[in-house]
Specification:
- It contains ten helices and no strands.
- By secondary structure, the chain is an all-alpha fold.
């Protein structure tokens, strides 16, 4: 879980820095950091995608997985769930007797918790970490979340740091689940799974670079499909 722990530390440190400066970080610095993160994510994706030479299985897995994801509307439902949490909190908070300062602090916590936990980068990063590989994706996510924490904490205050708690629980649970599942997989299955994950990472890098919007979450079922197909043909 080293990747998740680094991610948590980045959020805490970034929140502390943001609370100290109490002014928004210039957007040009945030944009530059995101561009660097996008490039690194794409490179990591390419290196992982080359782990397997069973191209046919990978292509079938991506197509079938994408069809399943679109049919279940995974991307849309994830966005709806995130918006529901934010709106539900805002409604409860507006009826409370808390001070405006307290409302601002709690709003910052909820917003950043949803931001840092929702998305394919957290899932794929935990998957990479659980497979025993160097958690490069979570390291990249840590950089992004660190800069985001500075920006949010400069507006919402130090309570943004508490969003590290749900990140630790969510990503940690996914990592441990992956560790458990790994004992039932052989080397060929691991290589195929890594390749599919790498392609999804490359797509994620395209999103971060804002080249084109790809709904990566809809492709996540491909990770399950490739395990099944790989197990059959192994």
């Amino acid at each position: 879980m080293i990747g998740t722990l680094v991610n948590v530390a980045a959020i805490i440190v970034g929140s502390a820095v943001g609370a100290l400066i109490r002014s928004r970080l210039p957007q040009k610095y945030i944009d530059t950091a995101f561009q660097c993160a996008g490039l690194i994510t794409m490179i990591i994706g390419i290196s992982m995608a080359l782990k397997s030479d069973r191209i046919v299985l990978i292509v079938i897995s991506l197509i079938v997985g994408a069809i399943i994801g679109v049919a279940l509307n995974l991307d849309g439902n994830t966005e709806k769930a995130a918006n529901y949490l934010l709106k539900k909190f805002a409604k409860k908070d507006s009826n409370s007797q808390n001070s405006s300062k307290s409302r601002l602090a709690i709003e910052g916590f909820i917003t950043t918790s949803v931001l840092f936990c929702t998305g394919s980068m957290a899932i794929l990063g935990a998957f990479e970490d659980g497979m025993g590989q160097t958690p490069n994706l979570l390291y990249t996510k840590s950089v992004i979340d660190g800069f985001a924490s500075i920006a949010f904490a400069s507006s919402f205050g130090i309570f943004v740091a508490f969003s590290a708690i749900p990140v630790l629980i969510y990503q940690g649970a996914l990592t441990l689940l992956t560790v458990y599942l790994m004992q039932f997989m052989n080397d060929a299955m691991i290589a195929d799974l890594t390749a599919v994950g790498g392609i999804l990472l490359f797509a994620l890098g395209i999103n971060i670079m804002r080249i084109k919007e790809i709904k990566v979450i809809n492709f996540l079922p491909a990770l399950i499909v490739i395990v099944v197909l790989s197990g059959i043909f192994s």
